[in-house]
Write a structure and sequence with these properties.
With 54 residues, the chain is mostly helical. Helix content is 67%, strand content 0%. The N and C termini lie far apart (30 Å).
């Protein structure tokens, strides 16, 4: 397992902001980049961190 501090920052931003889009705005990134990074973190940890159902 080799996740980075950036992954942790993204994870915490999503938790605090309540959504990938809001976290992306807060961090000055596009939502797809945040989603992809969280997906990679989930794959590394072999865990589902966020429920993406609507």
């Amino acid at each position: 397992m080799a996740f980075s501090s950036d992954s942790l920052t993204l994870f915490l931003a999503v938790l605090e902001a309540g959504s990938f889009s809001a976290a992306a705005r807060k961090l000055g990134r596009v939502p797809s980049a945040v989603s992809m990074a969280i997906g990679q973190l989930e794959a590394e940890l072999d865990l589902t961190l966020f429920d993406r159902s609507t």
